[in-house]
Structures are given as C-alpha cells and as structure tokens.
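User: Some background: our group keeps a shared notebook of sequences we're curious about, and every so often someone picks one and asks for a predicted structure to add to the entry. Today it's my turn. The entry only has the sequence so far, pasted here. Could you supply the structure so I can complete it?
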Amino acid sequence: MKPEQNLMILRNCRYLITQNAKRDIFEQVDIEIQDNTIKRIGKNIATKSSDDSGVIDCSERIVMPGLVNTHTHLGMHSLRGICDDAELKDWLSIVTKAEETLDEEAVYENTLAGLREAVRFGTTTLYDSFKHPRARVRAFEKMGVRGLISASVYNKKDLKAAEQFISTINSPLLRPVIAAHSIYMTEESVLREVIAVSDDKKILRRIHVGETRKERFDIQQQRGKLPIEYLESIGFLDPKALLVHCIWITKGEIRLIGRAGAKVSHNPISNMKLASGGVMPLVEMLQEKVVVGLGTDSVASNNNLDLFEEMKLTPLLHKQHRWDPKVITPQQVLDIVTVNGAACLGLSDVGSIEIGMKADIITLDIGEHMRPVNDLLSNIVYCANGNDVNDAIIDGKVVMRNKELRKA
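Assistant: Of course. Here's the predicted structure to add to the notebook entry:
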C-alpha cells in the first residue's frame, strides 16, 4: 500500500501571484498541496477529508511564492547595530573582532534567531555563509527552512574543512556551497581549488567581488586585470558561479558575466549603509540577460532581514541613480526576489507557484496601507512590508500560521 499523503488546501486565494512563465495572476482560486508538492490550482477544489483541518482560508490574503535571499550571514545576528557608521575597511576591522567571540553555540543561536526573523518576514529560502557550518545546519533543520550553506574559504586549511563539511550534508532542504571569500583575501591557487571542488561536486561556488573602488584598483594593480576579467581568466565564471555585490564593474565585465551564465547577488541596503560608493549596474545586467537575485547581507550591515524592504529600495535606488522612473518595473523586481533568486542558487523547483513545484508559499494580509485593486504588483513592491506576512509554508509544511512561528 502507498503511504497516505498529507493534503493541504489554500482555499479561495483572493489574489494568487504565480510567477509562472506567463506571470499569471489569478483571483479566488484554490491551491492543493500533497506532501511537499503543488498538485492542483483551480476553483472549488474538493477536500478529501471530512473536516477542514488541512484547509487555510485565503479569502482575504495575497498568496505568492516565498522570497529567496541570495546572500546573508545569519551567524552574525547578535552583532546587529555594533558598527553603523563606518566604511567597509573600518567596519570589517570592528566586526571581525566581534565575530571571533562567537563560539559554536552562539552561532547556532544566532542562526536560529535569524531564521525566525527571515521567515517572519516571508523568506523561505536563504543562502547563508559564516563559520561553524554544522551548527548552522542544525538550526536550519530545526526550523525546517530551505537553505544553501557555506563557510568562507581564505586558505588551504579552510578549503579542507569546507570539503569535509560538504560531504556531511544529507537533507532534502539543504545544499552545500563552496565559497571563496574574495580575490583580495584568497590566493589564486586556493581559488583554483575552489573551482575544482565546485566542478567535481557540481555545487555552487560563491565569491564577494567588486564591492569597493579600492578593491577594484588593488586587484587591477596586483593581478593585471579588472576583477571580473581576472575571475574569467582563471575559469571561475560559469553557471555555478554566484558573484556577490558587483558594484565596481564595467560594461565589458558585465558582458563576461552574461556570456558565462554566472549569477549576481544584489545587496543594495548593505552597500548603501557601508557607503561602498557607486551603484550596482543592475540595468546593464538585465540588458545582458544576467540573472540577478536580492540579498540582505548580514544584520550587522543592513540591519534586518526584511526582503520586502529590499524590494522597495531596489527600484527607488536605480530610478534615482538613472534619473528615469521607468528604468525597472515592479514585475522585474518581483522576479529578482523569487524566480531569479532561485535560479541564482541553482534551484529549479521553487520560486513560483505552479503544478509540480515545491510548495514554498507565503500569504500576506491586505492591510489599510495597500490597495491591490489598483495595481497588485505595485502594492507588493512599494507598499508591503515583512509584517504583512501572515503564513509561511516551506516544502509543504506550515512553518508560520497567523503570524505565529511554530516552536523551534
């Protein structure tokens, strides 16, 4: 006999933002979830049980895919607010010393607290990088959140530890990442080994790049190439590469990223707070078909994990920078934080609500500050915030219901 399937119905969704290929938006439809998979979308789907225990009333809710955070450091959660007025070089000096005081148990508790905050604000998938990766895995497993996890590689010792960690991941919700810290803090021989591990294990490889003007000039002087040109020359760029920040890069470098199929994580609030200077060339990246996702970075440089706030800031920043109110649309912003974010992390089964996809879904209250009848997507991008999130479902399991997180 086949085991009985767990059944859930999201009943009478007032608005359903699917993010499917056609970007369909439906009204007053049901979603049937069996185990962890979306099975049906339509009107008046009958329940198979005699009660309504598996039914969530969404008649006053906006239903949409869970948000995807493509870059954060949850283990730093207790460092929020320790250094709010320093440029990156000085900020790193202060924060790095504080990080050294965080032992494995502190990193576990921080990660758990960060996951609670992220889910409360509608994020269902995160890429998280920090030390003590096994402790962070425990936190992700306890919360039931989808994640990609790494520890930054600076040297050969870190590389060996990262390889050992990769072999321990055994969870349907979690994947390992091999993460070089940066060009300026990771020797070329180690960068090449990071590439080799990524290729051998067929896993994502990440690097911080193009974050400051000084970094750009130093790399050009030391390595004889611009940062992205250098990464291309050693074979780092390919569809498994995730490049974080990418502020100080040229149009030629953007074309290299696009041709290689590498992905980019845009972290606008963190970059603005650290006064990195310049603005990431998002418009040019979209023109070159570069897949871009959104990241919050850590709460030490943001200072929260609310991707709705990041969504609103993104178009405002680029409209202001380009003196052009039409430079990016709400649909493009929503793509960046759902389907494109999933693609950045190598995930093809989340980021949209359609039959056969994993059930990573959030619902939002339609509050007094929203008027979705005028323009639903505009309301999501410019009016909604994390506190509007009511329910969160990850892999078919309810992780938050009526704004209350399950105990973890």
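Suggested note for the entry: The two ends are 33 Å apart (CA to CA). The chain has two domains: 7-66+350-405, 67-344.
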